[in-house]
Amino acid sequence: MEGRIDVIQGDITKQDVDVIVNAANAYLAHGGGVAAAIAAAGTPEVATESRAWVDEHGPVLPGAAAVTSAGSMPADHVVHVVGPIYQDDQDNEALLTQAVRAALDAADGLGAKSIALPAISAGIFGYPADDACRVIVRTVEAWLSDGGDVNEVRLVAFDDATFDHFRRALRTLGS
């Protein structure tokens, strides 16, 4: 693995990184969870640019990413990806992996060296947090081992439980 993965407990909107990742819905309507926090912290640019992005490109599809500025946040950009709404009758793991890779690929395409990711889909999308964190860590480790410009990945947990899930996944998977 070429880069570093850190687990941080705190507010993703305050991370001093090149890119923060938003766990978005397809229409970039920032109504709750991480998306609402990012829109509020990046006011008004993030919300305005999100609406413009959807107007121009349509909904954000699985495996794709939308990029906006970060407004007044310390980061330069927000990469918006859509993780799966957890359902028993779909390949949740493949969809989450696709979203995480899309975020990392978009950040790399921006020339970013550092990125902060939340527990995509583990909130209002209902993905069990321990499983989501395991998939995210495994995907980040695999992506970093393939090489790219991103060399610092912060997995940002807002609460104690998610922090513990990320730390356990990172320990279990060998970093």
Task: Briefly summarize what is shown.
40% of the residues lie in helices and 18% in strands. The protein is α/β, with parallel strands linked by helices and 175 residues long. The protein has a single domain, classed as Leucine Aminopeptidase, subunit E, domain 1.
Structure notes:
The chain is an alpha/beta fold and 175 residues long. It contains five helices and six strands; from the N terminus they run ββααββαβαβα. The protein has a six-stranded mixed sheet with strand order 1-6-5-2-4-3, with helices on both faces. Strand 5, helix 4 and strand 6 form a beta-alpha-beta unit. Helix 3 packs across helix 4 and helix 4 crosses helix 5. The mean pLDDT is 94.
Task: Profile the largest sheet.
Answer: 6 strands, mixed
Relevant CATH superfamily: Leucine Aminopeptidase, subunit E, domain 1
Rough outline: globular
CATH architecture: 3-Layer(aba) Sandwich
Strand content: 15-25%
Proportion of residues in helical segments? 40-55%
- Lateral arrangement of strands in the main beta sheet: 1-6-5-2-4-3
CATH class: Alpha Beta
SSE string, helices as H and strands as E: EEHHEEHEHEH
Q: How many domains make up the coordinates? A: 1
CATH level-3 fold name: Leucine Aminopeptidase, subunit E, domain 1
Average pLDDT confidence is 94
The stretches of 5 or more residues where confidence is low (pLDDT under 50) are: none
Helical run tally: 5
